[in-house]
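Bug #77: duplicate submission created two jobs. Keeping one. Sequence:
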Amino acid sequence: MNEIPSESESELDWVLILAPSRKDADYIAAFLQEQNVAVRHSRADNELADSLSLSPGVVIITHEALNPPVIATIGDYLASQPDWSEVPILVLLEKAAPLARIYSQLERSWPSARLMLHTRPIARLELVNSIQTNRLVRLRQKQVRDAIEREVELRLELNHRIKNILASVTSIFKMTRRGASTVEELAADFTGRLQALSNVHTAVFEAGGEEVSLSSVIAMVVAPYNGDGLSRIKASGPDVCVNRTSATTIALCLHELTTNAIKYGALSQKDGSVDVIWSMSEEASPVFSLDWIETGGPAVVEPKRQGYGTKYVRSALTSVFGAAPVITFAPSGLSCHAAGPLQRLQI
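Kept job's structure:
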């Protein structure tokens, strides 16, 4: 038996020969291998089912092999094939064989096969052309299969992402509703938070993959508050890529801190400002740090009751960094420090 190449190199691109006598198998295999076509021989017994399970591109059967057990085994294999698969089967018959009757019988037994009958002797060039043409057909079928599988994957991924987005929107609405005292306040805060979420997804989309530049995300979050020569929120740090979930979470947390700073903190004052600083340690497994530092605002007094926005920031940053952030209500200004393994933000 000739071994075929590895599956990654030969899937649906090799020939299975079932020829029990007259040295047909060796003859066919010899000139196919001259064409760099991989070949496997099979006996008309339990080995046939195993050989078919390896997904041949083309099956060649001689007249002598056409017995009821073989026809049934091949029929069972064909019945298990997906809709995109139409297995090419070349049958080499004796010159005096009743072609019409055999074709009719095989068509009933193998309705999903791409069936071709040839009489012997057959010119070598004719047989090679037939096999090569059907190998090409089989590889086109493989391309269709891969396209179908990719489409299914994309649909599943799209469904997953839509569910995640809707879950985020639901969470944002609940968070906003609990902290709003008027309908107008609810509408304004909810719109702002949705815009922050939209900005992150825009950055991820433009990045063209599952990872996104943290600098791009933070720049989008702070951009509305910097303009006309003023930089109310200054962002600085090395360019580092993080995964979609981390980017979204960090952006929403920064939006919450910004909203709080506008209402009660540094951004509520004309001269107040915020520094957003991130850095990485120079270790084999670097630690990533993110700091939010407010200055120039009113004197800060730690609230007696923790608001929902603060609860969200604590919980969300803990999930990303693996450790709770340190939120400090210093008189000179609120600060928030979060740190954890960089790997957590990237895997």
